[in-house]
Amino acid sequence: MIELQNVCKSFEGREVLKHISITFETGKTNLIIGLSGSGKTVLLKSIIGLHNIDSGKIFYDSREFSSMNSLQKKEIRQEMGMVFQAGALFDSLTVEQNVMFPLEMFTNFSQKERKERADFCLNRVNLSKNAYSLFPSEISGGMQKRTAIARAIVLNPKYLFCDEPNSGLDPQTSIVIDSLIYELTAEFHITTIINTHDMNSVLEIGDKILFIYKGEKSWEGSKNEILTAENSYIEEFLFASSLMKKIKNRF
Amino acid sequence: MNVFFHLGRYYLLMAKVFSKPEKTKLFFRQFFREVDNLGIGSLGIVAIISVFMGAVITLQTAYNVTNPLVPSYLFGITTRDSMILEFSSTVVGLILAGKVGSNIASEIGTMRISEQIDALEIMGINSANYLILPKITAAMFINPFLNVMSMFVGIFGGYVACVATNAVTPAAYVEGLLFQFNSFYVTYSVIKTVIFAFLITSISSYNGYFTNGGALEVGKASTKAVVYSSVLILLFNVILTQLLLS
Fold this sequence. Notes:
The complex is a heterodimer of chains A (251) and B (246).
Chain A: E1 2-11, E2 14-24, E3 29-34, H1 40-47, E4 55-60, E5 63-64, H2 70-77, E6 80-83, H3 95-106, H4 111-124, H5 141-153, E7 159-163, H6 171-187, E8 191-196, H7 199-205, E9 208-213, E10 216-221, H8 223-226, H9 232-238, H10 242-250
Parallel strand pairs in A: 3-8, 3-9, 6-7, 7-8
Antiparallel strand pairs in A: 1-2, 1-4, 4-5, 9-10
Helix pairs in contact in A: 3-4, 3-5, 4-5, 5-6, 6-7
Chain B: H1 2-17, H2 24-39, H3 43-64, H4 74-113, H5 116-122, H6 127-165, H7 170-178, H8 184-209, H9 215-245
Helix pairs in contact in B: 1-6, 2-6, 3-4, 3-6, 4-6, 4-7, 4-8, 4-9, 6-7, 6-8, 8-9
């Protein structure tokens, strides 16, 4: 469980996050949604400690992350996995080496054990064996995302963060990636936080949804509640596309 | 104020860089990769430039000094001392600032903008230490070898020029090479090279590490790395010469 209490963050006097409080639950996919520039990425980066927050508190299973020193943060970070928007795979390493990297850094596994664990994770994300020895530049965007997910789960994280995991992917691959994250969250009982503005993700895997508008928490609920939410900003956001407008008008 | 900001940030970065590596085995793997990339990969360019510079120094001295009172072994001394004192350390340093500096800044800058550095941080890895320390230590280790190689190749270039043009007799050239040789000059040159290696790698890494934005900014960081490294090499050349030779 990750809990945020009155989290504020500003850059050069410009307030980007304003008093955000929410609890992200374990074993559920928690979504942060909002328009571009609403502060989603800053919130995610603040939660994982890439940005230092100005005020407020962040708890990881009752451990106050925001007041920890760098050594304590480092310990918590080894319980985190992160899937970046563009994958952030290491260019100089092959797909398999990318997944083995955290194991090499933080475990005393033998080369054989590392390879077995990496192959298990790559297999779990349904990546073809032919891709294991390829470099990130040689594989498709969808395969890069799968590799990034495999790398993120290789150390059995307690917390999984995904920054727009569907960006740049076709709708079909997006659904596959969503399902994968959803299944892994339940299977390994992870606290997953996904930063997205993909409507399909919202309606399919949003166990808990936080809607941010101009840096403020505007709405909180689940995928079952969002379509009937009485919030004009959410309505604008949900039905921005003509497809969603048509669906709304039909029903 | 801007200068103090950069100086402060540079020192803080170096404090992060010079900490104990997460895994010694991984550090040494990276170290040898960088020795190959930054050092062995620069052998060709250093050798080519040195051999031609040695030849040109010999020929220019021979063609410009026409006074019959000047002994012919002077040309060997000139080439030897120019190569050892200045060319193999400072000029090679400037060349490496262009080749290695831009390589480091663009590599780390690209890792920054593609969030690879963030990925390392999220894993709980000291990214500055993991990425930069092997580069600095590898360059400080391998550059003295490049430096000494440059001296030999440059002096050999001068000899080849003598044989090919007969502007100076090879025997006189060799006599000049051996005349009143001061071995401290080699030590002085190696000391300068080690310090220049640190300047090139640390300044370029700093520029790459704090890149913000996209491809344009990576290009700018790369240019800044070369310019700042070159200027500081020239400044430290004066300081070290005064300290070591006065």
